[in-house]
Amino acid sequence: MGGDTRRGQWGAIRVSPIAEPHPNAGESGVRRATARARRVLLVEDEEMVRKVLLRMLSSRGYDVKTAASVSEAEGLFATPGNDFELLITDVMIPEGSGHALARSLVGRRPSLRVLFVSGYSGGGQVEGLDSEQVRFLTKPFGSAELTQMVHDLLPPEP
Predict the structure, then answer these.
(1) Phi and psi for 115 in degrees, rounded to 5?
(2) How many domains does the chain fold into?
(3) Is position 114 within any domain?
(4) Regarding beta strands 113-118 and 134-138, do their DSSP bridges make them parallel or antiparallel, or are they unpaired?
(5) Which of 105, 23, 34 lies closest to 70, judged by CA?
(6) Domain residue limits at 119
């Protein structure tokens, strides 16, 4: 049945999930499962920054895998089932550059969107990448800025 027991001042109660009716759910009357989370590959070599970005994105419902270097990112990208829709990468990363990594991964999955983050201002066209699928965000930035940028960059779900 599911659920959990919660204890309070006067005893314990059992809290069980309730299936809510959904107007378009068909004959079952049970709400359909929500769509899977959008998949993000986050590449950032600074551990604290990586953890903060992971927390920001995860709290917004994104399924995030993290890497600290080009080789880690390429390994995650090649793993079956990791069908990433978005690459978020620092411009300067160990073992290469964010630009080179993005070109390599987009070459393998042309629908991949890319968000470059950097402590340096500026950002323009990256050779080999379509400007429609690339954005730049200058550090520092807040959760709202990151969320809006990711939302604007990803195409609507079908």
Answers:
(1) -120, 115
(2) 1
(3) yes
(4) parallel
(5) 105
(6) 39-153
